[in-house]
């Protein structure tokens, strides 16, 4: 399979969450451009691919996006099968959309391969259903980090009534808390802060909106982490308590 780029989601970290399609792409790859947050264990599915690290992580020195674009184009034009391997899902805060557009503008065949996103895997591992009948009819995924430092419409998010999953929010916990409270969200809204989703070192801190910043400091919460904000967090906790009491 020549002159093609696969934009592959490697999932949140647990190598067993890799899809069969992702495994096939890795096996066929001549070149793999791998992000920092990808578990290196997934590279066991490569045959003889050249692996190039193109790290991108918030708050750290990162490989420029234009340079990554040029690398993909260079190897694809050489007739190579290229895999751009990303943590989570390539189209959920993974720049998969813009990379696909750039490649197609230059006549390069592109295939996107979904991966399990950290917001889903982290919540599931903590027994939190992101939607739950009678509690939450939807889920909203947002990032607290934007390229142009623009602000989200936190009031609309507070009033939306869906479970809120926030990526890249550790450095902005106080701002998130303040904006959601000002938007009308209840001070006692349950919050789960989940670090290293799906990995053996995953940690979870349960809190409430009004005190999540303070609790995160005591917990020493670090990136990568996601926030799950909504009544499903409290409902899940209540279900666990009830099950333990009846056991």
TrEMBL record:
Pathway: Cofactor biosynthesis; adenosylcobalamin biosynthesis; precorrin-2 from uroporphyrinogen III: step 1/1; Porphyrin-containing compound metabolism; siroheme biosynthesis; precorrin-2 from uroporphyrinogen III: step 1/1. It comes from the Bacteria. It holds the Pfam family TP_methylase. Coiled coil: none annotated. Residues 4-210 form the Tetrapyrrole methylase domain. Keywords: Cobalamin biosynthesis, Lyase, Methyltransferase, Multifunctional enzyme, Oxidoreductase, Porphyrin biosynthesis, S-adenosyl-L-methionine, Transferase. One of its GO terms (biological process) is methylation. The keyword Transit peptide does not apply. Its EC number is 2.1.1.107. It is an enzyme of class 2 (transferase). This is uroporphyrinogen-III C-methyltransferase.
């Amino acid at each position: 399979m020549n002159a093609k780029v696969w934009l592959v989601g490697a999932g949140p970290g647990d190598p067993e969450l890799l899809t069969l399609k992702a495994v096939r792409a890795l096996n066929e790859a001549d070149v793999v451009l791998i992000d920092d947050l990808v578990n290196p264990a997934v590279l066991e599915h490569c045959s003889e691919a050249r692996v190039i690290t193109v790290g991108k992580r918030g708050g750290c020195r990162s490989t420029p996006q234009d340079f990554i674009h040029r690398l993909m184009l260079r190897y694809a034009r050489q007739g190579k099968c290229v895999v751009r391997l990303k943590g989570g899902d390539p189209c959920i805060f993974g720049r998969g959309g813009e990379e696909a557009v750039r490649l197609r503008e230059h006549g390069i065949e592109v295939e996107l391969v979904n991966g399990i996103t950290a917001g889903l895997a982290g919540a599931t591992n903590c027994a939190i259903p992101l939607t739950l009948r009678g509690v939450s009819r939807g889920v909203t995924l947002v990032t607290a980090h934007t390229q142009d430092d623009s602000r989200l419409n936190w009031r609309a998010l507070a009033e939306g009534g869906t479970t809120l999953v926030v990526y890249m929010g550790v450095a902005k916990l106080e701002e998130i808390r303040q904006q959601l409270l000002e938007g009308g969200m209840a001070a006692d809204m349950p919050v789960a802060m989940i670090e290293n989703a799906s990995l053996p070192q995953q940690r979870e801190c349960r809190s409430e909106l009004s005190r999540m910043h303070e609790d995160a400091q005591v917990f020493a919460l670090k990136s990568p982490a996601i926030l799950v904000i909504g009544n499903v967090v409290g409902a899940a906790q209540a279900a666990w308590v009830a099950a333990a009491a009846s056991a």
